[in-house]
Amino acid sequence: MAFEGLDELYREVILDHFKSPRHHGKLLSHDVEQEGFNPLCGDQIIVQLKIDEGKVTNIGWWGKGCSISQASSSILTEEILGKTLQEVEHKIQFFKSMMQPQGEVSKNEEEGDLEALSGVRKFPVRIKCALLGWTTLEEAINLWKKIHNS
Amino acid sequence: MKNVRPDFPILDQRVHGKPLIYLDSAATSQKPKTVIEALSHYYSTMNANIHRGIYYLSEEATIAFEKTRRKVSEFIGAKEDRSIIFTHNATEAINLVAHAWGRKNIKEGDEILLTHMEHHSNLVPWQLLAQEKGAVLKYIPITKEGFLDIERFNNLLTDRTKLLAVTHMSNVLGTINPLSHLITKAHAVGAKVLVDGAQAVAHLKVNVSELDCDFYAFSAHKMLGPTGVGVLYGKPEILESLPPFLGGGEMILEVHEEYSTWKPIPYKFEAGTPNIGAVIAFAKALDYLEHIGMDVIREHEKALTQHALYQLKEIDHLTIYGPMDANLKGGVISFNLEDIHPHDLGTLLDHEGIAIRAGHHCAQVLMKKLNVPATARVSFYLYNTPQEVDIFIDILKKARRYFNRGL
Ligand SMILES: Cc1ncc(COP(=O)(O)O)c(C=O)c1O
Question: How do B84-87 and B136-140 pair as beta strands?
């Protein structure tokens, strides 16, 4: 059988998110919108956030890209919906360190669908794909903060 | 064709436990032993700067360097060696023309005619020039089948057209463009023609004198040579009329505080120490290609391409971009397998030892026209075999099943 060992990257959870992305599409109303682009491969993502009283109360996204970038973005939405900005920022940092090739990951955080992405670490050229949604989210939050602090 | 694989040491290895199948020669070709050895031989026995030393080593290196110029000149059918300029790659060769010829000859309102299938290397330099000069870029569109739209070309070409910059062979579609027709027409309105030969010269017999192009640019690394060497062919009378591109050592006759004078061509355009060892080793690549024969290589690649196209056509949900007739294209096939992004396909195939390219192939304008963000691409060279094509096709079929598992 071909592709032995690749299941670590293409776990069924990931393929599932890729094929049925969560919170996919535009929001009726949003407070901030951010586009992310990976010039290396042309992957593109747009994230919209609704932020009320310091919490992410709604999220929508769409874009073009490989299964890893799309699944990671879909998983992200489930991870951060309803969380405070501080919690979201913590998650982003956590995910970034999880994507380090030798990243130390505390077991209790690596749970649920997010854990499914840990296999990407072993495929260095694909780490950027997994990060795209998260860095775009980070930029969206920074943008929101800039608007609301001035 | 004889089995050339033993001449390419890199091919004899396993990747992820599988025999390497290298299907990305359009990005860069592998190198025969003779080229690898020539590099090592140069550094072990001959290393010295050229055109400067009055001692033995420098003379030897200079002679070998100039011998490559002679070979390149013959290889592409140039009439004079002085029309061969060494650069560091095709991109630099095109930029040389954009700076030296473009700045002198392009004025506000002039038109530069490009095509939708250009590599960024033959697009961005003209954009920069057009922005600087207030010139206008026009693009020859492509047909559904992946050919240049010649009718549109005839209309786009006017007496405002000062330059036609066109690829000889598309690095995405494989399309071989009808250069003779394009060049004759362009010359008739007084335009100059630059041909991006980065793909073509590695796979087709090219004769720049017969083509009558004004400039022809390519890279050694795509034609069995080392990286870091490019070539610009230019008609000598045009090159002579141009100001230098880069200033510095090697290209001057006399330097005064306020001004300098230039060496004759080609040296006027070769500022600074070139990639001497790589240029010298490049001669071995040309020897190798000539020893096998460009016609033989072309026939071999045509057969592989036809063999691959024939099988790819039969795969459900697979879209091929570009001509479907191997007689009209080089050994380059771009495609997409529905539902699977090219990067995922790249990873899946890599896992089976197969190296393909996935992405926009430095042709984002073309990607937009094809209405895809990216494609997968296989490209063949003299060392690929029909068996490799068969394994690739087999894995491709399995990839779709694998990706849709559990659904
Ligand atoms: C058609 C074409 N033009 C230009 C180039 C640029 O070549 P280089 O990167 O060696 O300058 C390439 C190679 O990628 C190419 O395929």
Answer: unpaired
